[in-house]
Amino acid sequence: MPDVRFLQIHSLHGYSAALLNRDDSGLAKRMSYGGTTRTRVSSQCLKRHWRMADGAHALQKIDGAAAAVRSRETVTRRVIEPLKDSGHDADTIQAVEAAFQAAVYGDKGDKRSNRQPLLLGEPEVAYLADEARKIVETHAGNPKEAEAAANEWKKNSKANMKELRDNCALPGGIVAALFGRMVTSDVEANIDAAVHVAHAFTVHAEESESDYFTVVDDLQRIDDDAGADHIGETELTSGLFYGYVVLDRGMLLHNLGNDAEMAGSVAERLVHLIATVSPGAKLGPTAPYGYASWILAEAGDRQPRSLAEAFRPECPPLTSEAELKARQHLARLDSVYDVGESRRLMSLDDNASMPEAERLSLAELARWSGNAIRQGKA
After folding, report:
1. How do the domains of the chain map onto residue ranges?
2. Is the pTM here over 0.85, yes or no?
C-alpha cells in the first residue's frame, strides 16, 4: 500500500462530428505528434468545463467550498454597481472606483482594456465590496475625502489582502485551490495549481471534414429568388482522445488549509467530471456529449508520468486498440522502473485489463480515488 503524493487519471473519450475546441480562425485545434497531425482539446478548455459544471458532482457543491469568479469586470460588477444600486452618492462612488480597480488589476486598471480576466474567490470579492462600502458611507457627499481615503486604502491593500488570505481557508475559492492563479499586480496572491491537466489529443491522425450548410427563409415565396437565404461552412472532427490529469495531494492539502476531507471530495468529484463532462463548441448543431470509455487511475509517491508516448505512433481509432497500446506501454515502464503505484481501472470493454489494475465501476473508482487522497494511502 504506497503512500500517495500524486493521483494520476488517464482517460479515453470518443466523439463524432463535433467541434470541441476552436482556434482563432474557427477551426479545430491541432497539434503534431509522432509526425502525425492530431486533433487537440486544450487544457484551458477542459478545466473551464469541469469548473463550470453544475451537476451532482459540481466542485462548488462541496461542503465548505467557496466559489470564485474570473473576470476583468469584478470590481465594476460586484463592488461598484451594488453601491449604485443601494442608492449611495454617485460622485462619492466614482471617486473611489479608480483606487479599487488599480488595487485589483494594477495601476492601469482604470481602463477595461488594460485589465486581465482575474480569478477572485468569493471571500476576496466580499472583502473588497465591504471595504468600498465603508469608505463610501464614511465620506458620503464628500468625493475628495472619499478619493483620499480610497487611495490610502490602496496603499495598504496588498497587506490587507495578504492578511485576508492568511486567515481564510479558501480566499481564492475552490477553483484557485485546484487550478491555481497568477496575479501580476500582486505576486503573493499567486496560487500554485494542485491539478495539472495535459492537452487531450487523438490517438490517431486527425479526422475532419468541412460541413456545408444552408439556411432557408421560412417566409420565402414561390416567386422570390430560389435558393438558400444563407450559406455557410464549418469544420467538424471525430476522434478518440487521450486525456491525462495529475492531482498533487500535498499542494491540494496546502491550498485547502489541510482539510483532508475536502481534498478527498475534490478527487472523487474530479474523477466523475473527467468521465462525464464534455467540452464542446457548437452545442446546438453537434450535441458533443460523451462519457469516457476507459479510465485508469494510479495513486503513488513517485513522479507522475503520462502514457502519451504509447500513442506517439498513431494507432487505429478504436478504444480496444488504444487500450492495448496503453497496456503494452505501461508494462514496459513497469519492467524497467518497477510498479510504484496502486491502480484501478474502469472500462466499457469487458475484456480490458491493465497491469496490476483492479477493475471497478466509475462510482467505485471515484470513491477509491477520493479515499487515496483523503487518507494518503492506496
Report:
1. 6-64+193-208+237-375, 69-169
2. yes
User: Within 10 A of 144 (CB to CB), how many other CB atoms are there?
Assistant: 11
Q: Is 236 helix (H, G, I), strand (E, B) or coil?
A: strand
Residue range 83-110, pLDDT digits in tens: 999 999 899 999 999 999 999 998 888 8
Residue 10's closest CA among 200, 163, 146?
200
* H, E, C per residue of 28-89: ECEEEECCEEEEEECHHHHHHHHHHCCCCCCHHHCCCCCCEEEECCHHHHHHHHHHHHCCCC
Gyration radius of the chain's alpha carbons: 25
Per-position DSSP letters for 279-312, written without gaps between them:
P-B-HHHH------SEEEEEEESSPP--SGGGGS
Strand intervals (E) in the chain: 6-18, 30-33, 36-41, 68-71, 118-121, 195-197, 200-202, 207-215, 230-248, 294-300, 341-347, 357-359
What mean pLDDT is reported for the chain?
A: 92
Contact 263, 341 (CB under 8 A): no
Q: Which amino acid is at 207?
A: E
In order of 47, 145, 208, 227, 356, the CA distances from 240 in angstroms are 19, 62, 13, 37, 24
Q: What is the rounded distance in angstroms from the CA atom of residue 43 to the CA atom of residue 107?
A: 30
Written as one letter, the residue type at 323 is: E
84-98, 153-167, 208-222, 333-347: segment of lowest average pLDDT: 208-222
Q: How far apart are the first and last CA of the chain?
A: 5
> Residue 346 in 3-state DSSP?
strand
- Identity at 68, one-letter amino acid code: A
Question: Which cell numbers hold the place of 28?
Answer: 479545430
Q: Provide the pLDDT for residue 332.
A: 97
CA-to-CA separations, 17 to 209, 239, 277, 286, 289, in angstroms, rounded = 9, 9, 17, 7, 11
